[in-house]
Design goal:
With 177 residues, this protein is of the alpha/beta class. Helix content is 39%, strand content 18%. It is built from seven helices and eight strands. The chain has a three-stranded mixed β-sheet with strand order 1-3-4, sandwiched between helices. It has a three-stranded parallel β-sheet with strand order 6-7-8, sandwiched between helices. It is globular, with a radius of gyration of 15 Å. It starts with a strand and ends in a 5-residue tail after the last helix. 35% of the residues are buried.
């Protein structure tokens, strides 16, 4: 789930694209995935999980079209990502990347976003949040990750998002018991 709001303009949107493509290219053949882009509106690449083996190479054109514009509809983005059916026999992970605070649509109240996100825990979904820059609502992202049994990571403007997300992905993509 990738923020493409106006505040992501400049190097941030390019770094977000690179981080996302790194994750997609390193999916295992047996993995399933989708990409959700959000700003004022929400757009899903496929609208449901698809086979990484068959389709991961086709994700790049969708990601390359990301443009930074609009507000930050965090509630809608998480709602979109959490509507996918979860197979209890498979791990389900949401990677959530944003640089801002909720500004649009259904809710901008952190407590309401967390309440709605609590369904992720019941469904067995884990949410890992990445905050970019200094204007991030860290309490909200920490809460989302806590409710989603994941962790939050923060990237300063001078740091490379792709490096941090890539390091996370390399660990998460090959879990060890």
């Amino acid at each position: 789930v990738v923020d493409t709001s106006g505040s992501m303009a400049g190097p941030k949107i390019e770094q977000a694209r690179n981080a996302l493509l790194h994750c997609v290219r390193n999916l295992n053949d047996g993995d399933r995935f989708d990409i959700v882009r959000f700003s004022s509106d929400i757009e899903s690449w496929k609208g449901g999980f698809v086979s990484a083996k068959d389709l991961k190479e086709w994700a790049a054109p969708f990601v390359d079209k990301f443009k930074a514009a609009g507000g930050t509809n965090i509630a809608g983005a998480l709602d979109a990502a959490l509507k996918y059916p979860v197979d209890p026999a498979r791990p389900c992970v949401v990677v959530f990347l944003t640089d801002g605070k909720p500004t649009l649509r259904e809710t901008v109240m952190p407590q309401e976003i967390l309440r709605r996100t609590a369904a992720a825990r019941a469904a067995g979904v884990r949410i890992f949040s990445f905050g970019v820059g200094y204007d991030v609502d860290t309490q909200l992202l920490d809460g989302i990750s806590e409710v989603g049994r994941g962790v939050s990571e923060y990237v300063r403007p001078e740091e490379d998002i792709a490096v941090k997300v890539g390091a996370f992905w390399n660990k998460a993509g090959r879990p060890v018991l």
